[in-house]
Amino acid sequence: MDWILFVLIGFATSFVGTLAGGGGLISMPVLLTLGVPIHQAISSAKFSNTISSFSSFFVLFRQQNIRGKQLLLIIPISLGGGATGGAIASLLSERTMTIIAVMLLLFALCLQLFKKKPKSAATAPALPKIFYPILYGISVYDGMFGPGQATMLMYAYLRAGMDYLSAMALTRFQTFISCFGAMASYLYSGLMNWHIALFLAMGSLIGAQVSVRVAQKLKQNQLRLILHTITFLLIVQLLFGLVSGRH
Questions:
Q1: pLDDT tens digits along 156-176
Q2: Which residues of 132-162 are buried (b: 16+ CB within 10 A; e: fewer)?
Q3: Is 92 left (phi over 0), alpha (psi -120 to 50) or beta?
Q4: Among 74, 173, 68, 162, CA closest to 122
C-alpha cells in the first residue's frame, strides 16, 4: 500500500508548490527518509512536477490572458538557464547554494513587503527587457540546486506588476519547461523509478488542480500572505539545514 503514501506526498508537494512554491522541500526529505535513492527521488519529483505544473498552468492560461510572446521568450531562457546551472553545479557546494538561496529569498521577501500594490489590468503587463536576465538567473539556480526556485519566480513576476494568478501561471509554465528538460536527462540515463514516479504524479496532478481552484477563490492579500508565510518557512528550513550540518 506504499502507493497511497506516494500519492499523498505528491498531493501535498503540488498543493503547496502551486500556491507559493517550495514544494520540493516537502517531497525530497520525505522520499529520502523512506530510503528512495537520491537520483530516483529527484527524477520522480521532476516527472510529477512536469505533469502537475503543466496542468495548473493550462487552467490558469485560459483565464489570465497571458501573452503568447511572453511564453515563447520564457522557453529558451528556462532551458538555457537550467542547462547552464547543471553545467556549473559541480563547481559549487550544496552549502554554498543553500546560503545563496536564503539570501535571495530574504531579498525577494523584503522587496515585496515594501512594494506598492499594482493596479489591476485586463491583461498581464509586458515584461521589461531587464527582467529576462533575472528569469535566466533563477533558471540557472534551479539547474544548480532548486529549492525555492518557484517562490523566487513568484516574487519576480509580482515585482514586474502582475496580479497573483498571472504570476502563478507564468511560474508554473517556467517550472514545466525546466522540469521537462531535467526529466528528459533522467529518462535518458535510465534513472527513473516508474513505481514511485507514476503515483507521485497522480497525487501531484490532483494537488495542482485543487490548489489552482483554491487560489481562484482567495483574495490577492490572502494569497500574498500565504506566499510570505511559505517564504519564511522555506528560509527557516534552509537555515536549519545549514546549522545542523545537513548541507
A1: 888 888 888 888 888 888 888
A2: eebbbbbbbbbbbbbbbbbbbbbbbbbbbbb
A3: beta
A4: 162
* Residues in CB range of 11: below 8 A, 6 or more apart: 203, 204, 206, 207, 210
Residue corresponding to grid cell 503540488? 14
Contact 173, 57 (CB under 8 A): yes
Q: How far is residue 90's CA from residue 231's CA, in Å, rounded to a whole number?
A: 27
pTM: 0.75
pLDDT per residue over 127-139, tens digit each?
777 888 888 888 8
Tell me which residue of 100, 158, 160 sits closest to 128, measured CA to CA: 160
- Residue 60 CA to chain centroid, in angstroms? 16
Contact by Cβ (8 Å): 49, 28: no
Backbone angles phi, psi at 80, to 5 degrees: -65, -45
How confident is the model over 212-240, as pLDDT tens digits? 888 888 787 888 788 778 778 777 877 87
Whether pLDDT at 122 is above 50: no
CA dist., res. 67 & res. 211, Å (int)? 23
Quick one: cell of 88? 556549473
Which cell goes with 82?
537550467
| Contacts of 137 by beta carbon, 8 Å cutoff, 6+ apart | 81
